[in-house]
Amino acid sequence: MFSALVLSVALTLAPVVTPPPGGGDLDYQLGGAVRPDPRVEIVVRDRNAPPSPGRYNVCYVNGFQTQPDEASFWRDRWSLVLKEDGRAVVDEAWGEWLLDIRTTTKRAALARIVGRWIDGCARDGFDAVEFDNLDSWSRSRGLITRAQAKAFARTLVARAHADGLAAGQKNWAELDGTVLGFDFAVAEECGRYAECGDYVASYGSRVLAVEYRRADFDRACARWGARLGIVLRDRALSRTGVRSWC
Q1: What share of the chain is helix, strand, coil (3-state, %, to 5)?
Q2: pTM score over 0.85
Q3: Which positions fall inside the Glycoside-hydrolase family GH114 TIM-barrel domain (predicted)?
Q4: Start-end of H helices in the chain
Q5: Pairing of strands 87-88, 90-91
Q6: Which residue, 85, 106, 112, 176, shows the most beta carbons closer than 10 Å to its own?
């Protein structure tokens, strides 16, 4: 009886996590916050930007790699950056160092850092958080395993849920992130790489799709526009850049 009561109280006190509206139009504003178009229901912004009033807000957190403008921060925590032969392993496409998530101790240390960012998203009034570069293992020169990436992802998702935030999977389309606790997906260029269906298989209409080329956007709209929120953006995600919706 006592155990059942404790469980009931715990469930009652647990924060309510609300995933984004399925199929809602979105704006991907990582390059700078602007007033969203009236049709937009979902706004994704960097963790250092404020949420957009009256919309469903997703907070961007680079959970598995560093931000290029935070080199000084990570040099002070150099042991947590993945290295090979003493040199940081770099995601060349974005100039980002990979975080070293290979051991339980390092994952715990990184979770304390990223966890504070997640807490900040919740305090600022965001509804959800997306964790970028879940697939950093694929750029780690074989140093990071899939299992280690999954273990760290579970930790981050649990922290988000404890803060009342829905958690979004970013990258690794072949993975059904719901087994790790993810509530939705942010899919960059799933039209270009024919991956939208992989995310839909896991999340249904709770897939936020971003395309950067008109032909890919048109193709994604033709196949998935009736079910998913899809936006065309310029690759720089600039404040005044391209924005189109299906």
Answers
A1: 35, 20, 45
A2: yes
A3: 27-237
A4: 2-13, 71-75, 104-124, 146-162, 196-203, 214-224
A5: unpaired
A6: 106
